[in-house]
Amino acid sequence: MKPVVSFCLSLSAAFGALYAAVSAAAPSVPAGSIASAARPASSVALGPTSASASNAAIAGLAAANAANGTHAANAATASANASAADTANATASAASSTTHLSFAALGAYQPLNLRGLDDARTVNVGVRLDRLVTAARLRLRYTYSPALVFPLSHLKVSINNEVVATVPFDREHAGQIVTQEIPLDPRFLTDYNQLDLRLIAHYTLDHCEDPENSALWADVSPTSELILDSAPIRLPNDLALLPAPFFDRRDVSRLTLPFVLPASADNATLRSAGVLASWFGAQADYRQARFPSLSALPSDAHAVVVARSAQLPAGLKLPTVNGPMLLVADNPVAPGKKLLIVTGRTAQEVDEASAALVLGKTAMAGPAVRIGQIDIGAPRKPYDAPRWVPVDRPVAFKELIDTPNQLQVQGSAPDAIRLNLRVPADLFSWNGAGVPLNLKYRYTAPTMQNNSALAVQINDQLVKSYRLAPASADDAQGRLQLPVLSNGGNRSSSALDIPAFRVGSSNQLQLRFNLDSQKTGLCQSVASNPVQAAVDPDSTIDFSGFVHYAQMPNLAYFANSGFPFTRYADLSQTAVVIPEHPAPQEIESMLTMLGHMGQWTGYPALRVQIARPPELALLTGKDLLVIGGSGSAPLLARWRDALPLSIGAASNEGASDGPITRASFSVKEQWRNGAHLPDGSARIDRDGALAALMGFELPGSKGRSVVVLTATDQQQLSHLLDMLEKPDRVAQVQGDVALLRGGEVDSMRVGDAYLVGYVPWYAQLWSRAIQHPVLLGVLGALAGLLLAIGAFTALQELAARRRGV
């Protein structure tokens, strides 16, 4: 019996000593997080399952120690304690960070309006694959009704359907903005999470509450935030994880991904980097992306290295490069960071490696792959960008969503059903027709006519509102048929035209149901189950009746959708022109703009061309995107007569306190050098920073466009890129010149307009005719008179033949 008791005491002592040591070594790390932070490099598992693995490992160690006797157990436990302390200290000091995620950044741009007895809203939260959450808290900012019964009313907080907290309401703070910090157990957080806020509200102790009573409300501010403390996780070098960790779709912040390029990189290398930047831009989508250009490995970030094998940075330990290769390796100057290396022996092989990455990512695995053969396929057709709505046929709603649940709502006043519609910027309605929308929908029908309605909106502008019909007598027959086999039930359809002038290149169709209460009097019974509504996935919207026709230059088209370059999704008719010796800011601008192209089209720029000023004569049949960070750049000199604006070189003429920047432009006439300027023009000498976006027709090439990003110096190009990421600033970009000064945008039309696209002859004739309504009326009257005369003459001849005359 004594050996058994001694064994149990030894086992208990080992457990207690090891638990106390681990707890003391890492007091701020929650249970279950120690094993996750110190897991082997080959493991990528996240979540609470790490806790069980950690506990099993500790129990196994303690049992082994106990089996070897008490003294052996004590020695082994002391050694384990020291090792655990060292590991915990190393983990705590290794790149731990705190992230603040506001509800607005997570997609809840407007306040979360909770209404009724029981209402809920959801906010989606992601955790990066290479981070482990060690602590979390919710900083909730909210306001609630002062008319509630406070002992019964509260806010329920859930993560992934697990209730983690309840927030009681009190009379003292009613009607005020309340800020409350709620600690959260990090073990509830996985890679993708749903944070649910549910209002449980009562305004009376009577048994017959009205769920639509105006006293039942609470609003949660979009400035509420989730605060996550996280530690890094060492990921394996595995191409199967791409695009992570270089881009992680769980991360809602802007993507900033450095590109490491050789000094004086040639056009082929820059083109390969541009293809990769466009692909990463497509992945980042709404988050936006920036791609700084570096000549050395970064010391604090993941990075993409694009170079021939002979030009790779020193210090990289790589296998022999014997063809086009893709590799993921540790960054030797940044612990915990990775490098995506795109390389080959020649520029052609580097290009093949970049194309293989953007086209064949799903077939890759392991730390390195060699590309055997790559075919980028046939060139894209005009207007077939994957992220654009097809404009050659009616498009069903099921093609615009990920899951059918996106077309279903419940509750009396649910959030709108939203469908994003990206279309080419040059769609033109020559006859004034709108966009046909064939809408099919179902809803819980009210028992009697009330204010239930469906509002159809485009870009927050009302198109039409429909009153929802009440239930019919046939609904109570106790007979059910599948909707696919029956036309009965409360299924309705409506056809309408969305005004064409309401539609831009990036649109959102909003379908907002308002299902009014069916309660007709005090203490009348109300159904306990929520009312529901759904839009049929077979509903359609049709852009096929439009032609492609636009007046250019129009920088709004470029700033919102990259038109005209994105007309071909692979940029097969686009050339990017950069200075002979580009500065890092100019290369960053080139890569970032190609990232924008990928964001707008959803497709990599596989056929884009990179050129320098001496090569302009070789660019035929191309639209040009010109990037130059200095107003005196020689690449603009050949277009002096076409430029709507000239930013001159800095000089010290007439100034004693600093250099002067010269900007000259004219209204409806082109600027010229010399003392005499044409009427309606101006020359401005200023010493402030200036950045400009310009558009004009390429001289000597009818219908070909040039868009220029330029500035007084290279540093100002970054401000131009910042402007293109802000929707409120982008909305101010118009005409053919947009000046950025101190964060403000001034747009104007200076140069001559030109037309792109095609309008059928009959459409051109009709468009010209409707501009002269009086003449059109006279011609209509004459045509009617001639028709009447012809009909009268024909009837007279017919009558004469009948009389035999």
From TrEMBL:
Keyword line: c-di-GMP, Cell inner membrane, Cell membrane, Cellulose biosynthesis, Membrane, Signal, Transmembrane, Transmembrane helix
Main subcellular location of this protein, as a coarse class: membrane
GO CC terms: plasma membrane
Location(s), subcellular: Cell inner membrane
Topology class, membrane: Single-pass membrane protein
Cleavable signal peptide: 1-20
Regions crossing the membrane: 774-795
Source organism, top-level taxon: Bacteria
Recorded metabolic or biological pathway in which this protein acts: Glycan metabolism; bacterial cellulose biosynthesis
BP terms from Gene Ontology: cellulose biosynthetic process; UDP-alpha-D-glucose metabolic process
Summary of the function given for this chain in its UniProt record: Binds the cellulose synthase activator, bis-(3'-5') cyclic diguanylic acid (c-di-GMP).
Entries under PANTHER family matching the protein: CYCLIC DI-GMP-BINDING PROTEIN (PTHR39083:SF1)
Similarity comment: family membership: Belongs to the AcsB/BcsB family.
Self-association state and partner proteins as the record states: Tightly associated with the cellulose synthase catalytic subunit.
Protein name, entry field: Cyclic di-GMP-binding protein
Organism: Paraburkholderia fynbosensis
